[in-house]
Each structure stands twice: as C-alpha cells, then as structure tokens.
Amino acid sequence: MVAQMTRRDMALAALTSVIWGFAFVAVKIGLESFSAPQLTAVRFLIACLPVVLVPRPAIAWGSIVLIGLTLFTGQFLLLFFAYTQGLPPGLASVIQQMQAFFTVLLAAVFLRDLPSLRQGAGMAIAFAGLALIGLTIGSDLKVAALGLALAGALSWAVGNVLVKHAADVPTFPLVVWSSLIPPVPALIVSGVSDQRSLLAAIPLASWSSIVAVVYLGALATIFAFASWGRLLQRYPAAVVTPFALLAPCTGVVASAAVFHEVFSPVRYAGMGLILCGLAVIVVHVDRSAGGPV
C-alpha cells in the first residue's frame, strides 16, 4: 500500500468530497419535484444501471441486501425525510458526519475494535457540538428533522460496519449491486405515502430537479463511492480520510450561497465542534514528520 498520495489522487480525493458536499444542495433541489422515497428510488435506479456490465461481487446475497438497506436505503431515505421536515442542507451536511462517531461505537461493540484515546476525545467533542445544536431546536429546526438525520447517520454507520466485516470485496461492484436494493423499499413507502406515483412525477419534474437526481445517482453515488473506494484500497485510511472534511465544509458554503442559509452563533459553534471532533478522529499526526499525513 502506497503511503504518499500522488497529486492526481489528492485532486481526486478532494473532488470526491466536494461532489458529496454539493450533493446536499442537490437533494433539496430534487425534493422540489419528488417526494423523499421517490428521490431515493430514482437516485439508486440510476446508480444501479452499470449492474449489467459489472460482475456481482463475491459476497452472499444476504450481505448485499443488508448493505443496501443500511448504507443506502436507511441513510438516504431518512435524510431525505429530514429535509421534508425542514432540515437545512448546510446543517444536514454536518449532522451526517456523526456517522463517523457512530461507526467507531458500533465497531467497538460488534467487532471488538475498541476506540483509541484520540477517537474517544473526538467523539466527546462532537457530541458536545451535537448538544449545542440540540439547544437551538425551535421554529426553524424540528426535533423530528434532527432525529431523522441522526437516524440516517446511524444507518450509514451500520452499513460501514457491514462493509468492514465484508473484507476484500471490491468497492465499485459492491456499490453498484447494493444500489439494486433501495428502489424496492423506497417505492413501497412511496406507494403508501405519496398521492402521486413516481411515473407520474417524472414528466412533471423541473429540469433542475432532473439534473439534481442525475447528479445524485451518477456523480454522488457511482463516481464518488467508486473513487473513494479505489483511494482507500490504494492508500492507508489515515492518508485518505482527512479529505472527507471537505464534504461538510462544501455543504455549508454551497448551501449558504444557493439558499442563503444563516445560522445562529450557537448552531455555528455546534457545527464547528462536530467538525473539530471529526478532525481529531480522521487527521492522524505523524510526530516524527511533524505534520499530518
């Protein structure tokens, strides 16, 4: 495994995180024409298109289903419902990063992968930030919105643990084949809760919503997950994961620029603490070199 990233791969890591950051804006645009379950379904109908060209990964169907239900269905369906409850995209991009801390906790419980002191400190800082955000619940932030976003982050964390347990499985085929799963439960939920079907919604969708959905399926799912997986296979996680900090930063800036999001000082402080906690966990300091790697 190569220890030093090439400039090209550094650019790819940064681009991938920026794509994920802008995805939080794309979600809000997509929800202008589609319901939460419909947006989930169409996103992954696009993401699973390469399945006709990509061999199924050497993993049991049950594992593919579980990963699809947690890493994709639960994460995004719950997040999209949080948007419909008024969760701002910028705040969503930060709250979703709680998955990193939930992953550490779940790995400790189920994989006996105990957190280090550094990880424990990072989690404490992040949960302090989450508590500050909780204090701002009011007219512009509902308990349901925050709860759904956190549940989505927890589902993401469960998916992370399942992927970690399925060692040596190529990321791209796993992403593509797991993308077959979300449309099924999402369309079932849509059939129960939506007055208009997905087939009826597509012709009425705005061009901006169509572009947003294609962005989510093709770039934020297929390209971004495949690129990130390739980088993690080629380099140590400590080298790649610091670039993930660009995603919430991009999400906050993009949401402020597009939707003119403005938060109270307390909420900004809470978001800042979550990002600081994430930095403590993912940025590994090489003391012999005197800097981050």
From TrEMBL:
Gene3D superfamilies hit by this protein: 1.10.3730.20
Keyword Membrane: yes
InterPro entries, alphabetized: AA-Vitamin_Transporters, EamA_dom, EmrE-like
Superkingdom field: Bacteria
One Gene Ontology cellular component annotation held by this UniProt entry: membrane
Residues in EamA domain copies: 11-134, 146-282
Pfam families listed in its UniProt record: EamA
Annotated localization: Membrane
UniProt keyword list: Membrane, Transmembrane, Transmembrane helix
Membrane topology type: Multi-pass membrane protein
SUPFAM superfamilies reported in the protein's UniProt record: Multidrug resistance efflux transporter EmrE
Listed transmembrane segments: 12-31, 61-84, 90-111, 120-137, 143-162, 174-192, 204-226, 238-260, 266-285
Similarity section: Belongs to the EamA transporter family.
The protein's name in its UniProt record: EamA family transporter
Organism of origin: Candidatus Segetimicrobium genomatis
